[in-house]
């Protein structure tokens, strides 16, 4: 079965009509394309809405919160559905080591720690709009991970 190949919408000042090419098979076996005016309103194509999760990680809380606020402000300006920022538990990485390199002397120890802060932001929007939102300037030291899933 032969189906519609191309749909073209013609908008006049007063009317909106839909025109399409209909394939026709002649007796000699040649397929020709006939132009037909259906007179119906055009079919609007829906933009696929994705569930987008933005994961932000940083060692500096102030820069992380600033990037979160900028992302959420940009999403709300575009009237998107936003959830977050969800503050995940802070990971504390600890290393305890001897101060002396040779092992001699008094038993003195150094304790180092690094805290990693994490935020999650969920958006429901087309992926093209997320490209515009995430084009903001991101503070140094903040890692951004964008995961796109179908809604």
The helix-strand sequence is EEEEHEEHE
> In the residues, how many domains can be counted?
2
Largest sheet: 4 strands, antiparallel
**Average pLDDT, to the nearest integer?**
78
* Second-tier CATH architecture of the largest domain: 2-Layer Sandwich
State the helical fraction. Answer: 10-25%
Count all strands and give the number. 7
How are the strands of the largest sheet arranged?
Answer: 5-6-4-7
In terms of per-residue confidence, which ranges show pLDDT below 50 for 5 or more consecutive residues?
1-19
- The span between the termini is 33 Å
Structural class: alpha+beta
Q: CATH fold name of the largest domain, please? A: Alpha-Beta Plaits
What is the number of helical segments per DSSP (H or I, 4+ residues)?
2
Strand content: over 45%
